[in-house]
Amino acid sequence: MDLSNYQCAGLFDEMFQEDGTCRGHYHPFEKLLKRTHPKKLKQLQFSANKSQLAMGMTFNVYHNEEGLEKILHLDIIPRIIPNPEWLKLEAGLKQRVNALNHFIQDIYNEQEILNDGVVPRDLIENSKDFLKPCIGLTPPKGIWCHITGTDLIRDKNGEYFVLEDNLRCPSGVSYMLESREIIKKAFPNVLNKAGVMPVSNYPARLLNMLQNLSEKEKPVVGVLTPGIYNSAYFEHSYLALQMGVELVTGEDLIVKDHKVYMQTTKGFEPIDVIYRRIDDTFLDPTAFNPDSLLGVSGIFDAYKAGTIALANAPGTGVADDKAVYAYVPDIIKYYLNEDPILNNVPTYLCRKPDERQYVLDHIDELVVKETNAAGGYGMLIGPKASAEEHEKFRQLITANPTNYIAQPTLSLSTVPTLVEDNVECRHVDLRPYVLYGEDIDVIPGALSRVALKKGSLVVNSSQGGGSKDTWVLY
User: Fold this and answer.
1) Is 453 in the same domain as 370?
2) What is the pLDDT of residues 324-358, one digit of tens each?
3) How far is residue 343 from each of residues 108, 153, 175, 407, 416, measured CA to CA in Å?
4) Strands 267-270 and 259-264
5) Which of 4, 241, 426, 440 could staple 94 via S-S, CB 3.0–4.6 A?
6) pLDDT exceeding 90 applies to what percent of the chain?
7) Distance of CA 196 to CAs 78, 342, 394, Å?
8) One domain, residues 123 and 87
9) Which residues does the UniProt record annotate as the domain Circularly permuted ATP-grasp type (predicted)?
10) Which residue among 373, 408, 443 closes a domain?
11) In the predicted model, is pLDDT for residue 61 greater than 60?
């Protein structure tokens, strides 16, 4: 493969420096690419696609009228992260999760951060994700956010920024695990020689974290899924299988005398810990959304009684609000008395009149986001939008300013990606996974999501993005 025509002018590229020389941690892979014929790379890519289908690594796009399941395209060229770089990310993620856990505990109990005016009280109390039934609640071991998938990006200078915190039901970890198995078969020798840290023990680490939530010696654990039509059902079933635990739906569970039981071939048996993949408000129709057909009536009362542990804890979604995100540096300083190791992307809160006016005046330069939207929806990328779209969002912001934030349009780093017979640069982000059990554990790998369309900054799978295996080096 000839890499001499690879161009990423003005951008930070993960593999190549500005002068075109390869970064040191990519040298073994560069040698492999240079001695591999393009036809062979295409064959490896074809095999990777077939492996994904065979494994059932598919997802359903909710807004796709065809309703077809698709693979999350796995590009065979990995994203490689050197160890010193990873150690800083690891420290920053641990700091962030620790502070956010303190924050969630506080706002549902003493509310000291609100009383001190560090975070506006109305911002929290008016958030649809602030669940009043959780007021006064302390979850088992005082842990709210057991599984976090934090989205990170890199700017043109190579500096990492946190784009958003995903503390509810972060998805994608199964793609990280299965992608490694596929790429291991494609490039077995170079992966071993490069000294890549393993991720295959994630299911064991996840199970250990879940079991830690119960006081029982051998707690029964289950994964609660909305069912086969959920976009992430592959992940739910995969993780249950890998952990050796039951995969259950709301119909499989029943609450009696504030205890939760699951239906088995032997009848109803008690269950102690549930890794829920159902949104907060659908969890219990008697406590939250009465129209929910996915949850379990009475499970929240059982949770409050301490007979069932839930991961993540109900109520964590309030920390996912994109307006709350803007205050995370202050949250870290408030609870830990530390400066953030990882910075936020600079954020304009449209709820503040002066910042709102700046956004309205510079909307063609900014990325505007709904505070509670996800998956690339409810978003405007100003430089790529039309004048009509700019005007539409100006009206939306003016009508409901609290519902919007805006950020500068960061370029995102690029990474070599196989496109037909060539290797071209494509924009990429990074989603590492953090487990919070006896301590905070950052998995040495990540889901790297890549924008497959040339020049696109949208990496979400629902918007046509793909993925890459992420190699963290020893």
Assistant:
1) no
2) 999 999 999 999 999 999 999 999 999 999 999 99
3) 26, 11, 27, 13, 26
4) antiparallel
5) 440
6) 79
7) 11, 24, 47
8) yes
9) 78-451
10) 408
11) no
How far the first Cα of the chain sits from its last, in Å, is 27
* Residue 437 domain-assigned (yes or no): yes
Give how many domains the chain has, as a whole number.
2
Nearest to 470 by CA among 447, 451, 452: 447
Please state at what angle helix 233-243 crosses helix 202-211, rounded to 10 degrees: 80
Quote the longest CA-to-CA distance of the chain: 69
HSE, CB side, 13 Å, CA atoms: give it for residue 374: 15
Confidence of residue 372 (pLDDT cuts 50, 70, 90): confident
- Residue 150 CA to residue 156 CA, distance in Å, equals 20
Banded pLDDT at 56 (limits 50, 70, 90): confident
For residue 309, the cross-strand partners are 273
Angle at 92 between CA 86 and CA 93, to 5 degrees: 90
- Whose tokens are 């840290």? That residue is 197
Q: Residues of the chain with pLDDT > 70: what percent?
A: 96
Q: Are 371 and 462 contained in the same domain?
A: no
- Specify whether 106 is located in the same domain as 208: yes
Q: Within this chain, do residues 378 and 332 fall inside the same structural domain, yes or no?
A: no
Closest by CA to 292, choosing from 281, 301, 303, is 281
The reply to whether 161 and 203 lie within a common domain is yes
Q: What is the 3-state secondary structure (H, E, C) of 366-416?
A: EEEEECCCCCCCCEEEHHHCCHHHHHHHHHHHHHCHHHEEEEECCCCCEEE
Which residues in 80-116 are b (16+ Cβ under 10 Å) and which e? bbeeeebeebbebbbbbbbbbbbbbbbbbeeeebbee
pLDDT, tens digit (0-9, with 9 covering 90-100), for 127-169: 989 999 999 999 999 999 999 999 999 999 999 999 999 998 8
pLDDT band at 375 (very low <50, low <70, confident <90, very high): low
Q: Among 146-150, 376-380, 395-399, 407-411, whose mean pLDDT is lowest?
A: 376-380
Alpha carbon of 200 to those of 174, 204, 369: distances in Å? 10, 9, 35
Residue 8 lies in a domain: no
- CB count within 10 Å of CB 375 equals 15
Report residue 465 as tokens: 């993005």
What would the two tokens of residue 245 be? Answer: 């635990």
Three-class secondary structure of residue 257 per DSSP: coil
Q: Name the residue range of residue 316's domain.
A: 24-219+308-343+410-472
464: three-class secondary structure by DSSP = coil
Among residues 408, 425, 440, the one where a domain terminates is 408
DSSP 122-187: HHHHT-TT--GGGTT---GGG-S-SEEE-EEEE-TT--EEEEE---SS---HHHHHHHHHHHHHHS
Same structural domain, 402 and 414 = no
Mean per-residue pLDDT, 416-426: 91
Q: Which helix (DSSP H) or strand (DSSP E) does residue 333 occupy?
A: helix 328-336
